Amino acid sequence: MLLDLKKKYNCNDIQCEDEMLKIFYHDFNDNFKNVDPQLKKDIENLCIQILKGHVAKSIVVQYHDWLISTNNPINKNLFENNLHEVWCRPEQHPCSQKFSDLHPSNYHDDYVNTSNSVQRHTKCRPSYCQKQRTVKSKEFPEGKIERFCKFGFDEFKYELESKLIFEDHELRDGSIKWIPKIVSKRNDQLMNRHNRWILQVWRANQDRQLLLDENDTIRYTCKYSTKQADSSAQLLRSLEKMTDYIEDTDSVSKTVTKILNKVIGVRDMGKNEVCWAGVQGKNYSCSYSVKKVNLYDNTNGTIDFHNEYKNVYGRSFIQLYEERSQKYTNMNLDTYARCVKVTSTSNGIKEEEISKKEQEKTALMFQPRYPSSRSSKIYWKYCKYNLIRYKTFTNLNELFDENTTEEQYIQKWKSFLKENPNVISNWEKN
Asked: Whole-angstrom Cα distance, residue 396 to residue 198?
């Protein structure tokens, strides 16, 4: 009987508690006529608590749906395959309009445009929300690296109605605590939590949550009061990186200058340039254009949850170089980046030769950059990325693999220099 209480007595209408209890008492007395009075009373109290719990649960869910929505005002069946087939962003961005300037007849259309413009999480990028984690399983006991969205949009599912669930969390003392959580109804996997009235008046992105107990309130407050600013994280990363670039022979002033230039993100200015800027002298811009070439592994991928079978990871410049046409087979990566403009398309790669005049006005900037000093602890990284840059290959495994040691990187680079002494000018001086 306890399992059938929710099905038998509909608690969706929060005003029916008294009527529901009357019906329950009538059925209860008929079903438990010959039961021990004390047991009958215990069962009766338990059933009443369950019924009132369902009513309280219904109140919480209805209050949540009144405040927060994760539904797209466009019908799911219309946009689940391709939203852009049924909705196009208006020429004038909805956030550039004031809500007070809208006519009441346009409120719904404005809600459609505003929610789909600023509330949908369309892509995941490694530089924004895409993270990596190691997942261990029977197939991969050492762990398998997988990508995920830190906001959880890749885990959201379509829900016909909101529901209140309880998740178990193990505490430090080993006990289990059940924490309430609302899974809101949604017809759009990528729609962020929002309040319609606030969205249309505020005209900007928002993320609303309903705090269900005092522990949630404490955790939420502590999280945002101690949240690290992006600039602080950047400062810490910069300071950590600079320790790799600092030599033992550097003076204190040189070390501080390097750190400040890295943190501020500007080049070091000479004294004469500082004086010229101080008297408001005219600045002259450089006529050279800078072309950045990233020698890291692929970090520019994107995830599109609309089509999970689509190749969503962008190709790195190394991958484009490996797929170069035959007439550029003998070019190393440095020359290829200088002489060829390559772009990735759905049909492969597109290559265009750069004119000599344009080459003379283009400066290449390769990343990462490491000190060339042989006494540096990370000198092997300098050798590794210079091998990629100057030695011709069709597959990166021809140069090295994941088992290559630091000493082997150095020896490979020295051997290459003996065969090609003119690759780097003034090499012997370093």
From this structure: 52
Rounded Cα distance between 372 and 422, Å, is 16
Q: Point out which residues pair with 178 in neighbouring strands.
A: 168
Contacts of 58 (CB under 8 A, 6+ apart): 11, 12, 14
Range of weakest confidence among 28-37, 167-176, 349-358:
28-37
Instruction: Provide the Cα torsion 139, 143, 148, 154; round to 10°.
Output: 20
Residue of 124, 122, 117 whose CA lies nearest to 74: 117
Confidence (pLDDT) at 255 = 72
| Burial bucket for residue 39 (CB in 10 Å: 0-12, 13-18, 19+) | exposed
Taking Cα atoms as reference points, which of 15, 218, 215, 202 lies closest to residue 97?
A: 202
Show Cβ contacts of residue 350 under 8 Å, excluding neighbours closer than 6 positions.
342, 343, 344
CA quadruple 263, 267, 270, 275: dihedral positive or negative?
negative
- Are the C-beta atoms of 112 and 74 separated by less than 8 Å? yes
Mean pLDDT, residues 385-409:
89
Is the Cβ–Cβ distance between 186 and 159 less than 8 Å?
yes
Question: In terms of DSSP H, where are the helices of 90-210?
Answer: 107-118, 196-202
Residue-level pLDDT at 409? 92
Cα first-last separation, the chain: 85
Report whether 158 contacts 71 (CB < 8 A). no
The per-residue pLDDT for 241 is: 67
Q: What is the mean pLDDT of residues 126-146?
A: 80
Q: pLDDT tens, 17-63?
A: 455 555 555 555 555 566 566 666 777 777 777 777 888 888 888 89
Please give the biggest Cα pair distance in the chain: 103
pLDDT in tens, 190-203: 888 899 899 989 88
Q: Please give the Cα distance from 212 to 75 (Å, whole number).
A: 30
Asked if residue 345 has pLDDT above 80, the reply is no
The pair of three-digit structure tokens given for residue 152, joined into one six-digit string:
């959880």
For residues 353-384, one letter each, b for 16 or more C-beta atoms within 10 angstroms of the residue's C-beta and e for the rest, the string is eeeeeeeeebeeebeeebbeeeebeebbbbbb
pLDDT at residue number 184 = 87
Positive or negative torsion for Cα 118, 119, 123, 127: positive
Write the burial class of residue 112 (CB in 10 Å: 0-12 exposed, 13-18 middle, 19+ buried): middle
pLDDT score at 192: 87
Look at residue 163 and give its three-state secondary structure.
strand
